[in-house]
Recover the amino acids of this structure.
């Protein structure tokens, strides 16, 4: 794998200039990932929608638009952010889950593309809009992808998507209201480890697609896995691109129309570009363990605690120090362990530690728990550091609270 050890002296400079905790994003790396994905597919009409929930900084969203991406938005607020970042309404696919018809109506008013993931809302949508507003349908093909229970969304008990077994009912609803179905969508889970498994799921989408006559695109969701550990298997994008584009073109021929092939990666585009910088506050030796307590916690980077995710950690202040074993923990009043038994160059209080692969679901899942302030975000581009979100201040904690006399 390519462990992306960004230019550590730039990271140190960022920590010095903007203080810690700090998220830093390498814009060149994001462009590179976009190009790699776009280049992996043969002669198909490929459209990449950035699943912006991974990282909603508008400057990152703008960058991806410059690359040629659209946006996949899972809430009306993400739709608004995308519009604010300069996306045209038809470049935005709104893919909500368990929202009410009122929010979907707002999205229709904003002119964005609508993805519906349950029959009840589809019926209400049909009554409201008939054939006047095209919709995409989110299908659950019941393919298990990925190993972790939190991030597998294609299985039988999942709340996501319309079950493939309910297609006859869907057809009745669609015909009854004359709904114009312009796309089918699936998002099977967060990890594609095996191209074959993915192609099987794709077959299910093709089979379903043949009974909808007005399709313009098929959206294969995401699930591109990036390597978090040295020996992690990442999705073989090139193999997937080659195999799927071949099969897709065959399908389009059978279907009798050239459809667009859509994907909506989040993690793949932004994860490896991100580093999260923290400071070692205290070295705490117990009978069993040497803890490094840092000036951050689950409030800023939740993935290790929530998903049991591994993030590589290195001590960028003392790269040549002796290797020692540490357990890196946060300062929140919870057991917020970032990493057990990590080999780090000797850590001294005040050293800066860098977490790799922190671009996706890092800042966007951050909170103010323990009344801590959320970090700043910095972009690295052409060797230059630019603050793209300021650090929160105490006033931000009070901003929404009422002053009652
Ligand atoms: C979260 C999400 C994605 C992106 O998933 P990644 O694993 O970050 O690539 C894509 N599509 C939908 C509908 C999502 O909810």
């Amino acid at each position: 794998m390519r462990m992306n050890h960004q230019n550590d002296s730039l990271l140190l400079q960022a920590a010095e200039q903007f203080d810690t905790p700090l998220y830093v994003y390498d814009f060149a790396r994001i462009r590179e990932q976009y190009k790699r994905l776009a280049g992996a597919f043969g002669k198909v009409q490929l459209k990449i929608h950035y699943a912006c929930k991974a990282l909603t900084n508008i400057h990152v969203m703008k960058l991806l638009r410059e690359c040629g991406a659209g946006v996949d938005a899972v809430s009306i607020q993400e739709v608004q952010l995308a519009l604010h970042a300069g996306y045209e309404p038809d470049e935005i696919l709104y893919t909500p889950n368990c929202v009410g018809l009122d929010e979907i109506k707002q999205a229709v008013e904003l002119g964005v593309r609508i993805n519906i993931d349950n029959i009840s809302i589809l019926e209400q949508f049909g009554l409201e809009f008939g054939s006047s507003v095209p919709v995409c349908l989110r299908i659950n093909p019941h393919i298990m992808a990925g190993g972790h229970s939190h991030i597998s969304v294609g299985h039988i008990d999942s709340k996501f998507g319309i079950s493939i077994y309910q297609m006859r009912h869907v057809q009745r609803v669609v015909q009854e209201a004359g709904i114009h179905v312009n796309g089918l969508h699936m998002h099977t889970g967060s990890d594609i480890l095996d191209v074959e498994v993915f192609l099987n799921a794709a077959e299910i989408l093709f089979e379903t697609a043949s009974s909808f006559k007005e399709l313009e695109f098929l959206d294969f969701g995401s699930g591109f896995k990036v390597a978090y550990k040295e020996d992690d298997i990442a999705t073989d994008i090139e193999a997937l691109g080659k195999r799927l584009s071949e099969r897709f073109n065959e399908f389009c021929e059978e279907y009798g129309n050239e459809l667009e092939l859509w994907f909506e990666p989040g993690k793949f585009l932004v994860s490896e570009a991100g580093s999260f910088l923290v400071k070692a506050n205290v070295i705490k030796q117990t009978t069993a363990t040497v803890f490094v307590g840092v000036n951050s916690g689950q409030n800023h980077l939740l993935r290790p605690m929530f998903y049991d995710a591994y993030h590589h950690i290195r001590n960028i202040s003392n790269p040549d120090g002796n290797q020692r074993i540490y357990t890196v923990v946060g300062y929140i009043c919870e057991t917020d362990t970032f990493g057990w038994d990590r080999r780090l160059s000797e850590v001294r209080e005040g050293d800066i530690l860098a977490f790799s692969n922190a671009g996706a679901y890092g800042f966007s899942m951050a909170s103010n728990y323990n009344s801590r302030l959320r970090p700043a975000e910095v972009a690295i581009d052409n060797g230059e550091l630019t603050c793209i979100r300021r650090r929160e201040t105490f006033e931000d904690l009070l901003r929404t609270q009422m002053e009652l006399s």
In short: Confidence is low (pLDDT under 50) at residues 146-151. The CA atoms of residues 195 and 240 lie 6 Å apart. The chain has twelve helices and 18 strands.
